[in-house]
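Database export, one record per block. Field names are fixed; values are copied verbatim from the stored entry.
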Amino acid sequence: MAPIKPLRRVVSAILISGLFIAVTSSATAQFATHSEAARVYAEQLGAGGEFRRFLDAYVPALMLEFPTPGVAVVVITNGQTAFFSGYGFADVAAREPVTDTTLFSVASISKTLTAIAIMRLVDESRVELDEPIETYLRRWSFPPSSFDSRGATVRRVLSHTSGLEGGGGPEYTPDERLPSLVEALNGDNKLGVPARLTSEPG
């Protein structure tokens, strides 16, 4: 399978994920209960549902605006795939379409999902946005630096204003060993750069 250019792939995926979050968030406000909203979502996600019609009209336009060979849209409910729709090609030369088994790089889409998960914990009063992130860390802590790590709050980490850099790296291929989270944060990654504070938080 010919690789799909990561940047184009990520741009489309982020746009679609943002659109879906906006659509579902707006819809939730219209219903008194989650069960009622879930029923409506199920109707919208169906083969002829409103959400699919929206995607079928909008995704191809996005793919033209941000030249992208293939896009996959998936909705997960209670750990199960509730909806899938593929657009374009996984391999343009072979005219191989995007399917539910096509591999994509998650990349920065994980930031959206992480932020949603953290905000759910905030709603449950299990996490405070303005608490230092180290309050909740158990397996890793910031290496010594000239900056006060207490200023690196949950809110600032989520908004990229904590002064934190490093700990990441280029994409890994399916046959490469992925470092553990702690290894990546400690610099045992492709870039060899540990996560650290490089500027004053805020």
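Remark 1: Residues 1-34 have pLDDT under 50 and may be disordered.
Remark 2: Residues 187 and 193 are 4 Å apart (CA to CA).
End of record.
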